[in-house]
Amino acid sequence: MDLRPYQPADRDACLAIFDSNTPGFFAPAERQKIESFLDRPDCPYLVMEHDGAIVGSGGYALDAEQTAASLVWGMVRADSQKLGLGRFLLLFRLREIGRLGGVQMVRLDTSQHSAAFFEKQGFKVVGVVPDGYAPGLDRVEMVKKLIVCP
Q1: CA 5, CA 75: separation in Å to the nearest integer?
Q2: What does the alpha-carbon distance between residue 40 and residue 86 come to, in Å, rounded to a whole number?
Q3: For residue range 2-33, what is the model confidence (pLDDT) as tens digits?
Q4: Averaged over 51-77, what is the pLDDT?
Q5: Which of 3, 70, 76, 109 has the highest local Cβ count within 10 Å?
Q6: Hey, how many other C-beta atoms are within 10 angstroms of the C-beta on 78?
Q7: CB 18 within 8 A of CB 26
Q8: Residue from 75, 16, 5, 94 nearest 41 by CA
Q9: How far, in Å, CA of 135 to CA of 21, rounded?
Q10: Domains and their CATH numbers in the chain
C-alpha cells in the first residue's frame, strides 16, 4: 500500500471512490463540492494505491493559527472497506499533522454511518446536525486532541 500526493490525473479515480460511497456515506449533492475541490485542492491531499489501483484518498487542512487541523474528503472505495485501509489512511494523516508541530486538535465532519469508525480511533462527538447532509444523512462533528500534556 502506498500513499502519495494527489495529481490531477487521479481525479476520475477519486470521483469513482466518492460515487462508490454514495448514497450512504456521502450525499449525492456533495459531488459538485468534491469535483471543485479536486480541480483545485487547497490543502495537502493524498491518494492511496493498493494492488495497482487507487482505493482511497484524503487530506487535511490547517486553521489560520495552525493549532487545529481538519480532515477533508477522506474515503475508501466501497469494495475495499473493512480491510484496514481507512485506518491506515487516517493514521497516516494524523502522523503528518503531528509532524507539523503546534497542532493541538483535529476536527472532522462525517455522517452517522462512519462516526463509530472515528470513535474507535479516539475521536469524540461534539455535535450532531440531523439531516445535515441530506434527509436521513446526519452531519456528525468530531474532534481528537493531539496534545495531551504541554
Answers
A1: 15
A2: 23
A3: 999 999 999 999 999 999 988 777 888 889 99
A4: 93
A5: 76
A6: 13
A7: yes
A8: 5
A9: 16
A10: 2-145 (3.40.630.30)
